[in-house]
Amino acid sequence: MYLMCGAFRLARFNVQASRPRIVAAGTIKVDKKSFVGLPIPVAGGLIAAIVHFKPTPLIGYGPEKARIYSVLLMLLVGLLSLMMVSTLRFSSFKTVGTGSRSMRTIILVLAVGGLIVLYSQYVLLGLVLAYIFHGFITRLISVFWRKSETEATIEPNPVSRPSSH
Q1: Which of 39, 42, 91, 141 is the most exposed place for a label (fewest CB within 10 A)?
Q2: Mind giving me the DSSP string for 28-76?
Q3: Average pLDDT, the chain
């Protein structure tokens, strides 16, 4: 399932990269700010980060816990597979570091790099999870934002009825 969803993800990425979309102003533009679906390196990165976080073989936990952890890992791989072919948008970070705030970005990248060197097990797992949850949170915010905008624009249309006097 993981490999098939990865292949579908790559196929969709290639089609979307070669097909520009028309933006509101009427100009044709390729959307480079976000990916549609979880990128394959992030999905693989989560699995690798979990293994790096706790490198003990599953059988080292005993047969009962090993069975439970195996099922949980299979469910995680299935969830990651579905996220790869989902329509969730994930930031591509292609615009990070451009503009007047590039010095802050450099300092932040150096600080995260230092944290990875010192606490790689925790930081790598945290970074991947933060990226994945960012996609979910962004989707939730956009759903509620759109819902509140549509409620604000829809005004009740009072129907004027002639009085029966």
Answers
A1: 141
A2: EE---SEEES--HHHHHHHHHHHHHH--S-GGGG-HHHHHHHHHHHHHH
A3: 82
